[in-house]
Specification:
7-stranded parallel beta sheet, alpha/beta, 12 strands, Rossmann fold, 37% helix, 322 residues, 5-stranded parallel beta sheet, 13 helices, 2 domains, binds nicotinamide-adenine-dinucleotide
Length: 322
């Protein structure tokens, strides 16, 4: 069968597809007009971060599955796929560790300011260390995790390892699961007030858009550090900019943006109390390998070897009746 790769994936994913006898086409030009042309006869698509417009889906006469190389799927219209009886896959077991480590890196870097110490040491100012701004411990600080799914849980494990007090807001997860982790369930109202650190792990949808905005920021401590590795749009960037500029909170770390790539003159780029990464929290080498293999297996097993398919990776399994 013919599989379209929209964006490149690790060679190990190609090997999976080849070993199952599929032919592969990799599409680099992700404009809708080109996708319509190049993907017209594919049975499956592995999709990285490009938008997948409905007009492209209409142009694919034999499309049976789109598998995201990742877990977020806001670049494809799930309702439309349901209508057309096309499966949507994700790499549910691949990403969480890498993203959780990225969160801890943000927490540590935003509180320890290692880059300033490095600069001072290199510049022969070793004795001037007392002039560096204060830095802080994670130990016994309160962290609020918004969304306790695959990634939120991995972040919780790591925060507990640092002896932090872990609070969780996720009304869709059973209280016992949260407690069994050694975490505490909390409302947003109390969570925003108590948190020294906030880490966002929510999907982006109508309910979560602008989840962090000027109203929620008003409730936070002025020492609060916010990290978003979920999706741009869950934080209102204009409100975040104003809060950081006016020192309403201490610092922020963003891996994801309302518009990607963000515009060159983005106001957040002018601030010193924010760290930014280019949506690469899940792009460690190990994670890229896992995502390539898992997305290739999901597509291949869905098309020709259903017994081997990890059904949990098919988001619309109920709608498709499988
Ligand atoms: N930066 C990256 O490279 C990267 C990589 C992977 C995933 N992500 C993003 O990370 C986020 C989390 O991914 P995941 O794999 O943990 O997802 P998941 O589906 O496993 O977990 C999401 C959790 O959010 C909860 N939730 C949903 N709506 C909520 C609401 N309104 N209030 C509170 N909780 C709510 C759900 O109950 C679920 O437990 C997604 O937005 C995903 O797109 C980013």
């Amino acid at each position: 069968m013919k599989i379209g790769l929209v964006g490149s994936i690790h060679e190990l994913g190609w090997e999976v597809l080849r070993s199952q006898g599929h032919s592969i086409i990799e599409v680099a030009d992700v404009s809708a007009s080109n996708l319509k042309k190049e993907l017209a006869d594919v049975s499956g698509i592995i999709l990285r971060t490009a938008q997948m417009p409905n007009e492209v889906i209409d142009a694919c006469s034999d499309l049976q599955i789109i598998a995201r190389h990742g877990v977020g799927y806001d670049n494809v219209d799930l309702n439309y796929l349901n209508k057309k009886n096309i499966a949507l896959g994700v790499t549910g077991t691949a990403n969480a560790v890498s993203v959780a480590e990225h969160v801890m890196t943000f927490f540590l870097q935003l509180t320890k300011n290692i880059h300033l110490s490095d600069e001072l040491t290199r510049n022969g100012k070793f004795q001037e260390k007392a002039n560096l701004p204060s830095f802080f411990e994670l130990y016994q600080k309160n962290v609020l995790i918004l969304g306790f799914g695959r990634i939120g849980q991995e972040v919780a494990r790591r925060c507990l390892g640092f002896d932090m007090n872990v609070y969780v807001y996720d009304p869709y997860v059973d209280l016992k699961i949260i407690q069994n982790f050694g975490c505490h369930s909390i409302t947003t109202e109390d969570g925003f007030k108590t948190a020294d650190f906030i880490s966002i792990h929510l999907p982006l949808n109508q309910e979560t858009k602008n989840f962090i905005n000027s109203n929620s920021i008003k409730k936070m401590k002025d020492s609060c550090v916010i990290v978003n590795t979920a999706r741009g749009g869950v934080i209102n960037e204009e409100d975040l900019y104003n809060a950081l500029k006016n020192k309403q909170i201490r610092a922020a770390g963003l891996d994801v943006f309302e518009q990607e790539p963000p515009p060159a003159n983005h106001p957040l780029f002018s601030l010193k109390n924010i760290l930014l990464t280019p949506h690469n929290a899940a792009l460690s080498l190990e994670c890229r390998k896992r995502m390539a293999i898992e997305s290739a297996e999901t597509v291949s097993f869905f098309l020709k070897d259903r017994d081997k398919l990890n059904i949990q990776n098919i988001i619309n399994r109920k709608e498709l009746g499988i």
